[in-house]
Write a structure and sequence with these properties.
single chain; alpha+beta; Ribosomal Protein S8, Chain: A, domain 1; 9 helices; elongated; disordered C terminus; RBD_domain_sf; KH_dom_type_1; repeat; translation regulation
Length: 322
């Protein structure tokens, strides 16, 4: 089997003429709508052979349908296999919306992979020593227990009041590591009689912050209510060409801050995954597009390509993470 995808108008008559249009080029194994925005829809079409799919690609790319020119891209077999697991039975041929059960669904039995998006924290410099521990023992223990990769950037920004920490793991491992770091800071604060409040500070690329906040701040308000925390976000004016990250400050105790981290990162990961899916789709629909050549995926970056925003957003976000 081999797959192509077609971009068409969302309200086009493609559904009605699909059979007569596509079966001219071979046996259609399946056809499903995988994405719809306000104006366009994307359809995945699986043919029984690669030759049939390529013939359909050649004939349909540029085909005019009700004043809209179809854009057709070829999906490599390995990606088609990921999108259409062989063990999943197929229903009748025709348009259908892809369900969330295809991948990452609870009870699927598949081991969750580490997320490509790291958690970035800001911690007071005076607590970095306690987080690392004697000869690195504490940070190694956290790394082992949470199955995480943790980088403490203590040598960067000499003299700064805060240092950044990058955590890469599954969402569960990331949250466990974050909570362990919070517990260490609160214990150290008691030992050294540190009187100031110790908030949780999360760094997030500006491209994601708007979606985290939500319309009229609803998403952020809900997280505050659900976790009993107070959350503030640094202003846009603090962004620079070399720093496209904003600081999300969460105030509460260890338990409530840890819960807020889970909810905040859940929203940010959703934005990240949507952006990656969107860029992958564009890559298929524009033959010859090389995203790496465009510099949208820096080798050391754990972030998606910026889709819009000020010039500062074009700077590779997590260049510190290696």
């Amino acid at each position: 089997m081999s797959m192509i995808n077609i971009m068409c108008m969302a309200n086009s008559p493609l559904k009605q003429v699909l059979d007569s249009l596509l079966v001219q080029y071979g046996v259609v194994e399946s056809c499903e709508q995988v994405n719809t925005d306000s104006e366009t829809a994307v359809v995945n079409v699986t043919y029984s052979s690669k030759d049939q799919a390529r013939q359909a690609l050649d004939k349909l790319n540029g085909f005019q349908l009700e004043n809209f020119v179809l854009k057709v891209g070829y999906i490599p077999d390995e990606m088609a296999a990921q999108q259409n697991p062989p063990q999943q039975p197929r229903g009748r041929r025709g348009f259908g919306h892809r369900g969330s059960s295809r991948q990452g669904s609870p009870g699927s039995g598949s081991k969750q992979k580490p997320c490509d998006l790291p958690l970035r924290l800001l911690v007071p410099t005076q607590f970095v020593g306690a987080i690392i521990g004697k000869e690195g023992a504490t940070i190694r223990n956290i790394t082992k227990q949470t199955q995480s990769k943790i980088d403490v950037h203590r040598k960067e920004n000499a003299g700064a009041a805060e240092k950044s920490i990058t955590i890469l793991s599954t969402p569960e491992g990331t949250s466990a590591a974050c909570k362990s770091i919070l517990e260490i800071m609160h214990k150290e604060a008691q030992d050294i009689k540190f009187t100031e409040e110790i908030p949780l500070k999360i760094l997030a690329h500006n491209n994601f912050v708007g979606r985290l906040i939500g319309k009229e701040g609803r998403n952020l308000k809900k997280i505050e209510q659900d976790t009993d925390t107070k959350i503030t976000i640094s202003p846009l004016q603090e962004l620079t060409l070399y720093n496209p990250e904003r600081t999300i400050t969460v105030k509460g105790n260890v338990e409530t801050c840890a819960k807020a981290e889970e909810e905040i990162m859940k929203k940010i990961r959703e934005s990240y995954e949507n952006d990656i899916a969107s860029m992958n789709l564009q890559a298929h629909l524009i033959p010859g597009l090389n995203l790496n050549a465009l510099g949208l995926f820096p080798p050391t970056s754990g972030m998606p390509p910026p889709t819009s925003g000020p010039p500062s957003a074009m700077t590779p976000p997590y260049t510190q993470f290696e």
